[in-house]
Design brief:
Helix content of chain B: 40-55%
CATH superfamily of the largest domain in chain B: NADH-ubiquinone oxidoreductase 51kDa subunit
Strand content of chain A: 5-15%
Largest sheet of chain B: 5 strands, mixed
Bound molecules: flavin mononucleotide, iron/sulfur cluster, FE2/S2 (inorganic) cluster
Shape of chain A: elongated
Largest sheet of chain A: 4 strands, mixed
CATH class of the largest domain in chain A: Alpha Beta
Strand order of the largest sheet of chain A: 2-1-3-4
Oligomer: heterodimer
Number of domains of chain B: 4
Radius of gyration of chain A: 18 Å
Shape of chain B: globular
CATH topology of the largest domain in chain B: Rossmann fold
CATH superfamily of the largest domain in chain A: Glutaredoxin
Number of strands of chain A: 4
CATH topology of the largest domain in chain A: Glutaredoxin
Number of helices of chain B: 25
Structural class of chain B: alpha/beta
Distance between the termini of chain B: 68 Å
Structural class of chain A: alpha+beta
Chain lengths: 142, 519
């Protein structure tokens, strides 16, 4: 058994008893492997006695699941209304420039920090009141 | 020893509260990490003996301890932002440690559940009905009536599902409630379970809220024995706005694509795994423990306005000087909210527009700021209270860009089930781009002699495109299955109607395309 199928077996066993186990499984796979690829889909389908189409249908619906892992660090920047009102569109170019090819800038819609935007997230860390200097530093340190 | 209180709310932490707490500890203080008062422009807020200092940085630590800080705001409870609120759902905000069972019990925790267990299911439902509580997730449906339906639905297995997907931009009350007072939400769910005969609950929580996920999981573990035989579990979403819609949420919970289901059947009768299910917003459930205390329902009902009873946790967001959480009885005007309490814009520039009710809510012009916060009043004005988010824009906002964003958001987040939304939103973005460009020339195909039906003139001007946009919005409004496609026209059309000068250099074109805007 490959390392991957072992890990997937473990994750599936962790959630198998739950009502509606698929999302908890996919969340863990995404977190641990950085993606839910075709091989993982097939293993999950087998483990839950679903068709691969069922699993792929679910995986492809949600923004959080990626088909391929991206090794780059990610900075998620909120570009929803309240952060727009606080000027995120005026600093986003600086972030993209600082990111270059090294860092991935991802757009998200709302981190619940709407009174103190522009807001961003790296891992489980949140950042508020970003200006040009702040977001540049954030990207550089990502 | 000096006791220093600093919030561990995600916003305070993002502002540096953890480092600040460590610095005070290093100075020999006892630091209590409490929930947030909700005065976000002052976070991180440091509290010593009731006096507040904020926004505090590491450089302020010594001065605060020496009593020489110029960041003092005086006694927090007397601050006008706090003193003018009616806090029921957020009665513990700023005052207790979120994961302390001791603090929770000392402030009346579990009293509602205890009493609920004594009076039994029909009496619980009666009290919730009496309180006038309406769903705070957006639709404003009376909670008691929903519970009544589930209570009377036959079946041995029923569920309580808490909708904690809070996807609306400009809203954060669910987040603050879950992070700041997690036991109250759990108690509310346990009471709901008692009312309808459900012993299993699920909290569907968006993945964008890592702190709330952590806190609720910890809280559930701590109070397992208290809520038993009721059991409850956190389920984390995977980044899809539409999963806040209740039927999409149920599909997602079952492990499916988050596609919206047609109603009927109502989730109350055929919900999670086809079983009778209560789906309620965090704030709806959070209000329940208070309502179930002796006399609580009557007290809740008395704070209110028209058919909107109780209090609404309003979220002041965007370009506003004093942003944060403001819980108040219904009926308050936007002028009071934005200008008096909110202090106008953070940038100091004039207010241009306010979007109430999240991404699907209409943009409201300062001319209409006398509108009173009430479900029916807003509906009559083609606006939306939704989840109570108020997002302020100053005069640098470009309303065409905001309209375009509304369409773009809908196209990204559409569940894809129905055409007006799935395709309409994409077309909406394209039309708005053409309006911005001032129209378009005829293309090669249109000009080909074989195309007998196409016009061979010089092209379509912005007015033609605006007419098309209006048509498209009509179609989306009436042809969409759920409010994502159905309400996206509100921000778009309200922006077009009230700020035509942002759409075209010749606002006359808008007037011609929109006859009702002519007067
Ligand atoms: C597109 C869309 C998104 C929604 N998002 C949320 C949400 O994030 N949170 C929520 O509580 N309700 C949301 N709702 C409303 C729910 O469908 C439902 O009305 C609500 O959860 C019922 O609970 P309540 O009666 O306590 O408000 C959304 C509705 C739509 C159409
Ligand atoms: S309106 Fe949009 S989100 Fe709602 S059901 Fe139709 S396609 Fe899905
Ligand atoms: S809109 Fe950016 S955090 Fe809410």
């Amino acid at each position: 058994m490959s390392e991957k199928s072992e890990l997937l077996g473990e994750i599936i066993a962790r959630h198998h008893h739950r009502e509606g186990p698929l999302l908890p499984i996919l969340n863990d796979v995404q977190a641990e492997l950085g993606c839910v690829d075709a091989e993982s889909e097939a293993l999950i389908a087998k483990g839950l006695n679903l068709s691969r189409a069922d699993v792929h249908g679910t995986v492809s619906f949600y923004h959080d699941y990626k088909i391929k892992a991206d090794p780059r660090p990610v900075v998620q920047v909120c570009r929803a209304e309240a952060c727009k009102a606080r000027g995120v569109e005026r600093i986003i170019d600086k972030a993209t420039a600082a990111a270059g090819e090294r860092v991935k800038i991802e757009t998200v819609y709302c981190l619940g920090l709407c009174s103190a935007g522009p807001a961003a997230r790296t891992g489980d860390d949140l950042h508020i009141r970003l200006d040009e200097a702040g977001i540049t530093k954030l990207v550089e340190n990502a | 020893m000096t006791i220093v209180r600093i919030s561990d709310d995600a916003l305070a932490r993002a502002g540096g509260a953890d480092k600040l707490a460590a610095a005070f500890e290093k100075k020999g203080c006892e630091v209590h990490r409490t929930s947030s008062w909700g005065m976000h422009w002052l976070e991180p807020l440091v509290e010593i003996d009731g006096e507040g200092f904020g926004p505090a940085t590491l450089d302020d630590v010594d001065a605060i301890l020496d009593g020489k800080s110029d960041k003092s705001i005086g006694t927090i409870e007397d601050h006008p932002f706090i003193a003018t609120q009616t806090r029921i759902t957020f009665k513990r905000a700023g005052k207790t440690r979120p994961l302390s069972l001791e603090d929770y019990e000392a402030t009346g925790g579990w009293a509602g559940l205890k009493r609920a267990r004594q009076i039994g299911s029909e009496a619980i439902v009666e009290e919730v009905k009496h309180s006038g509580l309406r769903g705070r997730g957006g639709a404003g449906f009376p909670t008691g009536i929903k519970w009544d339906t589930v209570m009377k639905a036959p079946g041995p297995q029923k569920y309580i599902v808490c909708n904690a997907d809070e996807g609306d931009s400009g809203t954060f009350a669910d987040r603050m409630a879950m992070e700041g007072d997690p036991f109250a939400l759990i108690e509310g769910m346990a009471i709901a379970g008692e009312a309808v005969g459900a012993n299993q609950g699920y909290i569907y929580l968006r993945s964008e809220y890592p702190d709330a996920i952590r806190k609720l999981n910890a809280a559930l573990e701590l109070c397992e024995d208290i809520i038993t035989p009721f059991k409850c579990e956190v389920r984390v979403g995977a980044g899809a706005y539409v999963c806040g819609e209740e039927t999409s949420l149920l599909n997602s919970l079952e492990g499916k694509r988050g596609e919206v289901r047609a109603k009927p059947p109502l989730p109350a009768l055929e919900g999670f795994l086809g079983k009778p299910t209560v789906v309620n917003n965090v704030l709806s459930l959070q209000a329940v423990p208070h309502i179930l205390t002796e006399g609580g329902a009557e007290q809740y009902k008395n704070a209110g306005f028209g058919r909107s009873r109780g209090t609404m946790p309003i979220q002041l967001a965007g370009n506003i000087k004093h942003g944060g959480l403001y819980e108040v009885g219904f009926g308050i005007t936007l002028d009071d909210l934005v200008n008096k309490i909110g202090g106008g814009t953070a940038s100091g520039r004039p207010v241009k527009a306010v979007q109430v009710g999240g991404p699907l809510g209409a943009y409201i012009h300062p001319d209409q700021f006398d509108i009173e916060f009430d479900y029916e009043t807003y509906t009559a004005a083609e606006a939306l209270i939704g989840h109570g988010g108020v997002t302020v824009f100053d005069d640098s906002a470009d309303m065409l860009e905001m309209a375009r964003f509304a369409m773009e958001f809908c196209s990204v987040e559409s569940c894809g089930k129905c055409t007006p939304c799935r395709i309409g939103a994409v077309r909406g973005v394209e039309i708005l781009d053409r309006i911005k460009a001032g129209g378009r020339e005829r293309d090669v195909i249109e000009l080909a002699p074989q195309m007998h039906n196409t016009k061979k003139d010089s092209g379509r001007d912005a007015g033609d495109e605006i007419g098309l946009l209006t048509d498209l919005c009509e179609t989306m409004k009436f042809g969409s299955l759920c409010a994502l496609g159905g309400f996206t026209p509100y921000p778009v059309m309200s922006a077009l109607r009230q700020w035509p000068e942002d759409f075209t250099r010749n606002p006359e074109l808008v007037k011609q395309a929109l006859p009702e805007a002519a007067e």
